[in-house]
Design a protein that fits this description.
about 230 residues; elongated; mainly beta; disordered N terminus; 6-stranded mixed β-sheet
Length: about 230
């Protein structure tokens, strides 16, 4: 199984819209996935194209029996199931990190850095005192306008990514996901800076791409442990 997170962000002058589509892991099956219907016996394994183990399963008398384990392309355990005579009797899913994305429009200026929070009814998103202090120490000035947030919700360790943008992008950009804590990306003329600079990151990314037909908008996709976006 694969989990895909696809979030479309329209970052415009007066509107920001987020739509999240989640595929897979929505419900647990009590029968064997269709691709495993062939009558195997004993231990059976399937692999990712890079050689990593994808599924480890076991059969008895042609039926699933015992432990089945699913791994991502990097060898991380994603799920574990236990069968008895073809019936699922136990199942566990090991989730990815919970990541919050905060989108900030940066109005450049020489004045001391200020921020305007995003708020709709009781929902409010802003920058913390520590995040503002970090940006000020980095020499960022002007006005920040929080335009909204999105993310990937999981019952796991949390991380937070903040993107400061002053213009639309014209080419895809990959941003490494933080292993933990906050990571702030600041758009420059032809590059991006990030703070703090020594924070550990994962080998997976958030990708920003120009959104065709909407010149002031950005499409972003999150790569999960499966390697899917």
């Amino acid at each position: 199984m694969k989990t895909r997170e696809l979030t479309i962000a329209l970052i415009g002058i007066s509107i920001i819209i987020f739509t999240q589509l989640i595929f897979g892991h929505a419900s647990e099956q009590t029968s064997v996935p269709e691709e495993f219907y062939p009558k195997y016996e004993g231990v059976h394994r399937t692999y990712w194209e890079n050689g990593q183990l994808r599924w480890g399963s076991s059969y008895k008398n042609g039926l699933p029996d015992g432990a089945w384990r699913e791994y991502d392309k990097h060898g991380v355990l994603l799920s574990e199931k236990t069968f008895k005579n073809g019936k699922l009797i136990d199942s566990k899913i090991y989730c990815d990190k919970s990541i919050q994305f905060v989108f900030v429009r940066w109005h450049k200026g020489s004045q001391e850095l200020t921020v305007k929070d995003f708020q709709v009814a009781d929902f409010k998103v802003g920058l913390s005192h520590e995040e503002m202090s970090l940006l000020k120490k980095a020499g960022i000035s002007g006005e920040l306008e929080v335009r909204g947030s999105g993310g990937v919700s999981r019952e796991c360790q949390e991380a937070r990514m903040i993107f400061l943008m002053y213009k639309p992008i014209d080419a895809p950009v990959d941003f490494p996901l933080p292993e933990k804590g906050d990571l702030i990306y600041v758009q420059k003329e032809n590059s991006w800076d990030f703070y703090p600079q020594r924070i550990p990151t994962l080998d997976r990314n958030v990708r920003f791409e120009p959104y065709k037909g909407y010149p002031d908008s950005t499409l972003y996709m999150t790569e999960m442990t499966t390697g899917a976006r």
